[in-house]
Amino acid sequence: MSTTITPSVFGNVHLGYVVVETDKFGDWKRFGREAIGMHLDDMTPDMVRFRLDANECRVLLRRGPAEDVVTVGWHLDDDATFDEISRRVVDHGVPAVEGTDEEAELRGVERFLRFPGPNGLTQETYTTARTSPLPLDIPGSGFVTGAGGLGHVALTTKKPQLVRGYYNHVFDARLSDYIDETINGMKLKIRFLRVNERHHSVAIASVNILPINPIRTRIQHINVQAATLDDMVASYQRVNELGFEMALTVGQHTNDKELSYYARTPSGFEWEVGWNPIIVDEATWKPTTHQGISIWGHTQEGQTVIDKLSQFEVAAQSLLHREDTIAALSAPGIADDQLPRPEKLTRVRAGGR
Fold it and tell me: In degrees, to the nearest 5, what angle opens at C-alpha 274 toward C-alphas 271 and 276?
């Protein structure tokens, strides 16, 4: 069988938007607009959008019972990248469909492709984001997007090697580093993957040894980057003053050096607002392992004994739940401290689309 070289898409992929399904529109509007400081656009009784920059949509709320992030959208630099990722998905027999014109308009994009991701988190790819002619109505200096994209998403899984394999195979994600941490008595390993200059666009956490998932939601947290330290601190104060739950106080991370805090969204997952993370230098970067997520700060607030028991209950129930990692795009997976297999990354069937 003849082979050909597959072009890498690394650097051409950027986190673009997230879709949240919720019935708590009133709480979300207060949280997103008044607390975090995003621009609010009311679309329909069942659709709300938030902006961080010129793009028409960075967060789309749609009415529904999930109380969770249901979709992650990825902005691709060009049609060649779009076609290459589409080929990788379709050639492995994974269903991919184009979104409707109405769906694309709600997301503020020209067109997009939808396909399944690990643990029920739908992935969408697009090349052109529509920009709004209206100025941003937000406090302070705004948010940092650009080449690093919207920010990052963090998720938990029982099958971290396969989830890492998925994002490597589809988006050529590279390992930035690891963090070992103990939270609520559970020993976790967190893997940080980048697809561009941002230190990570996807973080993958798992409980060591035990095949459990202590998180109800598909996403553990979403991160956005404030433009200035004053903006980050001001939003922290607004979250507290408006009565939203603070998950972790202000602190600094060990690996990307970002200063940040974590608030709990009305849907239950967390929302991180950060400032000044490092930018990866591809010429010199080497993955390493850090002990603990924080140099200082990031102390827990407001967690009761009942909260901890509920988390253990979720973890126990996860033993009975099948976790779909989209095997065709994940297997055989990438073990920790293992580089991606060159033949997997660079060779495809000749004549493939």
Answer: 160
